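Preliminary data (for renewal application), 5'-O-[(L-methionyl)-sulphamoyl]adenosine complex.
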Amino acid sequence: MAKKRFYITTPIYYPSGNAHIGHAYCTTLCDVFARYKRMRHYECYFLTGTDEHGLKIEKKAKAEGVEPKEYVDTMVAKFRELWKAMEISNDDFIRTTDERHIECVQNVFTHMLNNDDIYLSKYEGWYCFQEESFWTDTQVGEDHLCPECHRPVQKATEEAYFFKTQKYLSGLMKYYETPNLIYPENRKTEMINTFIKPGLSDLCVSRTSFSWGVPIRENDKHVAYVWLDALFNYLSALGFGTSHDELYKKYWADEDSEIIHVIGNDITRFHTIYWPEFLMSLGVRLPDRVFVHGLIMMKDGKMSKSRGNVVSPFPLIERYGVDALRYYLVRDIIFGQDGTFTPEQYIDRINADLVNNLGNLLSRSVAMIVKYFDGVVPEFKSLCDKDRFLDSKVTLTIQNYENYLDDLHISEAFSEVMSLLNDTNKYIDDMAPWTLAKDDKNKVQLEAVMSHLAYVLFVGGKLLEPVLVNKSKEIFKQLGLSEKECDYDNILNNKILDNKKVFKGENLFPRLNVEEEVKYVASLMAQPK
Ligand code: MSP
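Predicted structure:
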C-alpha cells in the first residue's frame, strides 16, 4: 500500500569548495520528487544540508587564516544561495555545526557506548585525507592509492572508538531482503561482495588527531568521526531524542511515512551498511529506500572540486534560466547511471525538448486558437481516430509518469512527457488545421483539434511543473487557467479548458544558437568559478 507521507533527503554536502552541477543534480532530483509528491497532495518533508566537520575543512580554514566555523559559514552561505537560485523547495537545512545536531550526535554516542556497541581501541590503517576514509591493504593495493580519489594514502595509528559492525550483520542481511530497498539493485550486490563477504571490519567512529568535530562527552580527546557525525543529520533535523520531536514522530517513527535517501554512488557503503546498523543499535526503524544515482562526469573523468574541472550552475542559470538547468539535469542523466556533461548535449537538450517541442507546441497552438476561434478554446470533443489516439496517449503518459516518478525514474518520466508533446506536434501536422479551416464543413473537427491542443498543453504543463517551476506557470497563464483550476486532481478532466480565453505570450524558451552557446558553455568549463 502506498504510504501517506514522505521524508526525502539529499546527502549533506561538504562545503569545502563551491557547489557544482553534481551537487545541483542530486538536490534537483530530490526537489522534483518532493514537488511531485506535494503536487499530488502528499505530505512531504524534504531535507538537505551541509557536512561541516573533519580534517579537510580544518585544513582549508587554516590555509585561509580563519577559524573553521567562519570558513564554513561563508561556504554554506553559497550553498544556500545556490539552492535559492535553483528554486529548491527544501523544508529544512541542517548543518552539522548546528547545536541541535551536535547534541544529537553526542546522545547517540552515549547510547552506543552504554549499549556496548562502541569500544576504545587503536586504529591502524591506510588513511586518505582527501576522502577522510580509512582503507584496508586490499583496497589501497600495492601502490597505496586511495580507491576513491587515487591519491597516495598514509599509514595512520591512533586511539579511536570503534563500532561493532558484526553485532548487527544478521539484522543487516535481513534488512537487505526488503523489496526495492536499494536502487539500482546491483548496488546491494556490490556492497555484499565488496564489503560484507570479505569480512566487514568494525568502523572507526572517533578521531583524536584533529579537533574540528563533535566533541565526545565521555572522552574529551575525541571528536566523532565524520560518518557517524554526518549520517545522523537525517535524524537530528527531525528533533530525534529531544522534547521537540514532532517531526521525528511524523516523518520517521510513523510507519505511514516513507523514508527515502537519495545519494550518489560514491557514498553507498555508508548509507547501506553503517547507517542501518547505527539505526539498529538505537532500535529505531530503518529507511524504506535508498536511491543511488550516478555521477556527472566530465570528458576528463569525475567532476570534483579538488580536480578543479567543475561547472558552476550560476552562469548557466543566468544565461539559460533555472528551468532549463533543472530540466537538463533530470532529463539528460539516466537515474542510476553516470552521465557526461558536455556543452553540446546541454544546448541540444534545451533546443530539442524545450524550444522545438514544448515551446513550439505552445506558441503554434495558442496562435491557432487565436486565429481560428478568437482565442476561445472550443469545447473538448474527440471525433476521429487521431483524436482518440491522442486521448489514449494522454492517459497512458499520465499513468507512466506517475509510476516512473514514484520510483524516482525521473529521466524516464520526463521522457514520457516529451513523447506526448512530440506526438501532439505530429498530430497538428497530420490534422493540418490550416486546411480544415478552409472549409466550413470541417469546423467541428477543427474545434476538436484545438480543444485537444489546449488540453495536452495543460497536461504537459502540469506534468512538467515539478521541474519547470516558472515556465509551467507561464503555460497556464497563456491558457487562461486559474491557479485553482491547475490542481493536479484536474489532470484527467479534458473539459477544463472549455471556453477558456487564451492569449499569445512570449516564446517560452528562446531558440539557442548552437555554435555560439556551445562555445559559451565550453568557456565555463575551461575556467571553473
Ligand atoms: N558529506 C558527504 C555525504 C554525507 S551524507 C550523510 C559527501 N559529500 S560530497 O559533497 O562530497 O558529496 C555528496 C553528494 O553530492 C554525492 O553523494 C552526490 O550525490 C553529489 N555529488 C558530488 N559530486 C557529484 C558529481 N560529480 N555528480 C553527481 N553527483 C555528485 O560525500
